[in-house]
Amino acid sequence: MAAAKIKKGDSVVVLSGKDKGRTGTVLQVLPKDGKVVVEGVNVATKHRKPTQVNPQGGIERTPAPMAICKVAVADKDGKPTRVRFEVKDGKKVRVAVKSGETIDG
Q1: What is the C-alpha to C-alpha distance for residues 75 and 54, in angstroms, rounded to an integer?
Q2: Most buried residue, 26, 55, 57, 58, by CB count within 10 Å?
Q3: DSSP per residue over 26-84, as a string?
Q4: CB within 8 A of 73, min separation 6: which ones?
Q5: Model confidence over 25-51: pLDDT tens digits?
């Protein structure tokens, strides 16, 4: 299995779909499904009936998983960039292709 180029906590840019161009942080990565959950992007609404736990009921909004190929790591200027791996000081680190900076996370 290949190493994960996008990890939890990364700032990403959406490349395609209804949320194209929007940015957000990764909340969860689902490597087996090839999906990622991004905060504030691909928000699904669910109508909830009133229950004893939630007497108000109403519309619940939660971010839904989206394909990992539709997002790219955001560079320091907010533009999308690809990620490559390099060995620095004996450690394997992620590096942004456009700027050459190491990615924290």
Answers
A1: 41
A2: 26
A3: EEEEETTTTEEEETTSSEEEEEE---SS-SS-EEEEEEPPEEGGGEEEE-TTS-EE-EE
A4: 5, 6, 10, 11, 12, 13, 80, 81, 82, 83, 96, 103
A5: 999 999 999 999 999 999 999 999 999
